[in-house]
Amino acid sequence: MASSLSMVRAAAIVCFLLFIISLLIIGYLCPDNVCSLTNWSFSESRYKLWTRYSLRHIPNHIGKSLMYMESKGNEFESIESIRSMRTTHRIVNPSKKLNTMSFDQIVKDPNFMFDIKGDDVMVFLHMQKTGGTSFGRHLVRDLDLEAPCQCKKGKKICKCIRPNSSSRLWLFSRYTTGWKCGLHADWTELVNCVDSVMNQSERTKVSDRHYFFITLLREPVSRFLSEFRHIQRGATWKNSLHLCGGRPPAPEEIQPCYTGDDWSNVSLQEFISCPYNLAINRQTRMLADLTLVGCYNHSIMSEHQRNTILLASAKENLKRMAFFGLCEQQKVSQYLFESTFKLYFLQPFIQLNETHSSLAQDELDKSMLDKIKWLNHLDIELYQYAQKLLNERLNLMKAADPNFNYNFNHLGLSKKSEAMVNRSQFISDDPDELSPEMRLIRKVEQLKKKRLSDKKAQQTLLMQHSP
Questions:
Q1: Any stretches that span the bilayer, and where are they (predicted)?
Q2: CATH number for the domain that contains residue 120
């Protein structure tokens, strides 16, 4: 009798295990729109805002805890409320791996100076079409340093070596290391990559580096239109990695907006209509910690919840940046950089009031501009926050600078006499030696002349055919 009961019990256990295994297999293989098993979840009553990880994504997150988030009325009060959740129920913040220095930490130390001879490293997060190319060139060509960066004609990479070293770098940017963390690597990629790349580059492991993240932002509509014009001319950035959570996005998470090699000659309507267009709210996405929202998997939470977290994270990471500047405020940005790091540029930054995007914006009707603003509402709110934060930092530095008026009005001249600043170097006849600002000025002037010529030709044609 006892043996028969044990056999029945064993058979029941085997049947139960087979049932569970079959459910898992069906859940893995069956399409989402057919089987509800693929979206398994934990108790919604316990977690008001809960994540739904498809079984097919679980192998990519083995060893990592799933992320659960709670909110009040489905609204997040701040990014701090997200980070304060139980650590066993969220993805670990990757930035904790790095010894980063924020602006607030810097200003608390009245004797702070960027230790270019020690272990301080500047990390430039370069977002597309924000003026980063010009700023990146300023960093490697125009800083007044004991050991200036070594830039050879015709070479994009410069050697920015510490004064007391033959190989150790103080700057991590496209002009010093190239795109070692990926083409236009975002915050999520950089914080997981930069330290290992620095160790490989210097062939030694340094545990006490201090990382200073810096970046530039731009008015969102202008930036979006500038990217549109750049894509229209054949740019793609299709080699960007978009690594997050230890893997690149799945094919269904970021789908191409075009077929063929590029998206040349795309219309603006086509450009704004693609739901996978990464130009939309690019600055918010690139500054946010994407692991907080499941990377590029949009199925784990509502779009509203995802946007709320992304914006809060981007604002927090921007606030923790050692420095950020605004494309529209070159003078303020230069002063803040110099005041923060005690490193000085030999040239004043150039403020461009007209660009390709500003000319394009003048030709758009209100309905199209409203659509672009609506699409980029996260970037617009982030930019408004950045303007306020930049002004706060300027007032703080201004109060601490007894010679503010002189220093602010002599940027690029404090370490180099005005007579030595020869503007002709910006207007060289050699296109390779032109600064990005002057190349853009020339292109805009050529475009304006062409438009004026076309307008005159149309007027002449109308006059010839008028009765």
A1: 7-29
A2: 3.40.50
